[in-house]
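Deviation from plan, reported transparently: magnesium ion complex.
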Amino acid sequence: MLNVKLVAVDDTPAGLELLSEALQQEGLSIFVSTDPEEGLELIYREHPQIVLLDLVMPKMSGLQILEKIVDFDPAIDVILMTAHYTTETAVQAIQKGASDYLNKPVSIPALRGRVEKLLADARRRQRALELDRELLDTCRFEGMIGRSPLMWDLYARIRRVAQHYRSALITGPTGTGKDLVAKALHNLSPVASGRFVTCNCSAVVETLFESELFGYVKGAFTGATADKMGLVEFAHGGTLFLDEIGDMPLTTQAKLLRVLQNQEITRVGSVTPRKIDVRVIAATNRDVQEMISQKQFREDLYYRLAMVELSTPSLAARREDLPLLEKFFLERFSEQFNKEILGITRRAQIQLARHSWPGNVRELENALGHACMMTMGDMIDIEDLPLSIRRSDGLKAVEVSPVSEESFDSVFSFDSHEKELLAEALEKAGGNQSEAARILRISRDRMRYKMAKHNLR
Ligand SMILES: Nc1ncnc2c1ncn2[C@@H]1O[C@H](COP(=O)(O)OP(=O)(O)OP(=O)(O)O)[C@@H](O)[C@H]1O
Ligand SMILES: [Mg+2]
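Because the crystal trials were delayed, the predicted structure below was used instead.
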């Protein structure tokens, strides 16, 4: 069963003892402190799901601690206890992020009831995480992730045409997985064991296009010192992937059309055609119709390729896939960076949901890669996200900490030398925690959390 942690902070030892005895049960670990500051350290270190807080204590009030807890992790459930209950303070506390407010002396059955509810809640969330895990496994298709109707439709089309296509055109905005679709088509085709050869048309110099694609014979031009095979021939028995086909010159387009029609090529400088058997997949993020009307793309080639046309939807059109994609990339990056990243805070998730994603899945992948590299905790939070996303529309409602892009490099090495860096910053700051946090460009609470983690004073 899921183990839930509870921290209780109250300056009267007798009250604490009573509480922990009353709440004792299997699956619940209880930590107590009679000192507010020590209690806060305990919260940073144990990262409990539930906190019981006395509202009135010397040194620091329950409300002050509450603010710090909400800053540390807004998902923690905080129950405030007070002998001086008023509706105003209760409302104020709940506005600040408390989940509940109890009268002192605390009625044990009432407290038990509240804690039971929170426990059930924590277990439900745990179950939801497990379901997410299953969902992620279910919604994978040939390296693609998505559970939206648009993605299921894409998967179905790929599955259907993969057995039969000779040529295909994949269109869609940048970063939407056109490369993945091309590979999926190949992997599910009868020539899956053949080669998958990619030609990135935007990277080929115009004058070299034809010799690159069709090869040449010795003496065809200066520098042609021996016969050379082109990519089309190399892909014989497999698939040729023409990426960014919108960048292919018109003359080459005409020759490509002939290859598709006749299934034969002629090397540059030769007159003898060679029979080839190749499937061709082309991809572009440009508006092909527009290019045709501008006479930049041959209409006949388009119709030949587009006998099978698949289009990849923008991320904005399938926002329901965001949580799944977030989970997928988080898992991948935490493995890649060898960090234990458990998830993403609710407020960071909300910020991701607000963004418009002009760069689609690639942008999301980069943003989460950045976040996983930056983060010093086990949850991705707003301050870990790239500036472009933190500044995204509607950000006003969310507080942003002053982490800047320049700190990226310095933070890159943070993880492995975390303790040394913390100690160094503290020394530089003359022991002043806020100053050290500023040097490291992290929030003060995160600094304290990190110090507790590494037993630094
Ligand atoms: N549905 C998806 N699930 C998981 N990862 C995806 C998905 N779509 C795209 N990606 C990832 O996003 C990145 C960009 O995808 P890809 O290179 O296929 O984009 P593209 O459509 O070819 O873009 P461009 O037009 O700029 O070439 C890749 O790292 C890819 O693995
Ligand atoms: Mg691409």
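Confidence is low (pLDDT under 50) at residues 394-416. We consider this an acceptable substitute for the interim report.
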